[in-house]
């Protein structure tokens, strides 16, 4: 494992050098005194880029019995919800953190226990409750047309979910 660290360091250094060069070559602000405003992600953007892929990967890894990957995906999902609650404390007049605490945290806690025990039946039940929690939150926010379900196929053909390490 220690043999990979110098290679990783070299790759990171090369990427950072490229990022620095790219920043230095960015065009100046638009003329006329108007500065470009940074893009702010919407709730939909955050759900589609941060939550949905992690929910999907968690389901695929857990159903494949890849407990380490499922634990990682669950931790990433939990962190993403926490970050979203900080980035957008209210959505549609509702407190995002409280919605997460009610609809998402309890099933995530059940998932953590199932993953620690490597119990497929408990995982399936907890993952189903997590998915129901997502839909309950959508319903509460008047987004009932956004229906999340347990995945039956991978949207990530470049990742092996059955790999058990």
Characterization of this structure:
The protein has helices at 4-24, 43-63, 67-87, 96-103, 105-117, 120-140, and strands spanning 90-91, 94-95. It is an all-alpha fold and 165 residues long. It has a two-stranded antiparallel ribbon. The protein is globular and about 60 Å long.
Order of helices and strands: HHHEEHHH
Tell me the span between the first and last alpha carbons: 15 Å
Number of continuous helical runs: 6
User: Based on DSSP secondary structure assignment, what is the total number of beta strands?
Assistant: 2
CATH architecture of the domain at 43-140: Up-down Bundle
Rg calculated over all Cα atoms? 20 Å
Q: By helix and strand content, what is the structural category?
A: mainly alpha
Fold-level CATH name of the domain at 43-140 = Four Helix Bundle (Hemerythrin (Met), subunit A)
The main β sheet shows up as: 2 strands, antiparallel
- Helix content, binned percent: 55-70%
Q: What is the CATH class of the domain at 43-140?
A: Mainly Alpha
Q: Report the portion of residues in β strands.
A: under 5%
Overall mean pLDDT score?
A: 85
Shape: globular
Uncertain segments of ≥5 residues (pLDDT<50)? 7-24
Strand order of the largest sheet: 1-2
